Amino acid sequence: MIEEHYPARVRIVEVSPRDGLQNEPAAVDVATKVALIEALANAGLQAIECGSFVSEKRVPQMANTAEVLSALRRSRGVDYSVLVPNLQGLEAAVRSEITNIAIFAAASETFSQHNIQCSIAESLSRFRAVTEQALAHGMRVRGYVSCVLGCPYEGIVAPEAVVRVAKALLDMGCYEISLGDTIGVGTPLAAQALIRQVAEHVAISRLAVHFHDTYGQALANILAALQLGVAVIDAAVSGLGGCPYAPGATGNVATEDVVYMLNGMHIETGIDLDKLTAAGQTISAALGRESKSKAAAATRRKSR
Ligand code: HMG
Ligand code: MG
Question: Structure pTM?
């Protein structure tokens, strides 16, 4: 019997400018990215992952992150963050006056090697050094664990491996751990079983969920996570996204769909769904593609 105690309020971490655009076939210019981030802030998003300071050779789509951050008009009360893989990335974040970074480890060895060219153990010692320096700079550090419900190379991932990495990230000083279903293979009961296991070591209040929607399970998985009290959800407007090192994986859950569901459940987000939908339409048009959000498509049909 599942105990249902939905949170009264959910914090959405909008990852479209980073996770959403890192896998785009064509480079997205600075003005388009800035317009997206400003529209998201204007829609009420209070946590926006704006880009990443990673190797340009590995992820060319993120090469203009510093320019984006310098052109951006930052709104008060919005937490702008970037993804950082090492000390070089941390230095770039400091130069861009970013006070919140995200580090990213994996629960699968093979994915870790493909994504960041090192073992899980090596990545954790690298991230420990990054976190130590970031905290000394007064920054906040968020930790991702990738492949929590499956790996594109290894298939099944043991929940114990997820727990080990989540706990290591928490112990080094991360304020929050985001559990990433990188390839979107998870289903609700598997997600709940994993969250229950991780929550024995990391308080539910410090957990976030990050579902890619490859198999159309993301919203169901989010509902399952909410039932256990998880109150932080990563999402990308229009369902943009994917990881260049996760073959076959599609975008994140669409923020519009998450907000539509939470509105219907009377769970507060502080987000204006109309403005969010407009932001999604603008970026989809700029990329020359249809939004993957069903809520956005329904709104469009209704307004015709
Ligand atoms: P490496 O080859 O071991 O690094 O890569 P290195 O230190 O030997 O450096 C190699 C080159 O990269 C050098 O340049 C460095 O300057 C440069 P060169 O001398 O050849 O011209 N470099 C950098 N440049 C800019 N910023 C940096 C940086 N570091 C090195 N910070 C490394 C290791 C981690 C750097 C590399 O593998 C990398 O950048 N990987 C990118 C990983 C990535 O961004 N993946 C996608 C995001 S993760 C994700 O999507 C999952 C998530 O959404 C959650 C989920 O869904 O599960 C978060
Ligand atoms: Mg992701």
Answer: 0.97
